[in-house]
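A quick word before the example. In earlier lectures we treated sequence and structure as two separate objects. From today on, think of them as two lines of the same record. Here is Divalent cation tolerance protein written that way.
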Amino acid sequence: MPVTHDIIMVFCTTPSRAVAEQIAQTLVAKKLAACVNIVAGVESVYAWEGKIEQQQEFLLLAKTTAANYERLEATILSLHPYDTPEIIASPIQHGLTDYLTWVAATTGNNN
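And the structure line, produced from the sequence above:
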């Protein structure tokens, strides 16, 4: 089985490109994520406070280590305008070993 270094992918939606860019830049600058992709054009439909809501959002895909998750989450919460932002993480079970090693090395100073 390939080495994963406990790499996780953190998903977060934001209401605007400006918010997405601010969060992405901050996470990478603080070495809490090695890379954050910003995906535009996400249409979200969700239940909130008894209503069905629908809006355009930007999706962040942050690659980091499990050890960095708590600090990454706290940083997102400090910058995010939503009361309850979507912040979820999934383990990376397989991937290019060189890429996973790079993610771990790039974010490893926070452990």
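Notice the following. The mean pLDDT is 93. We will return to this example when we discuss secondary structure assignment.
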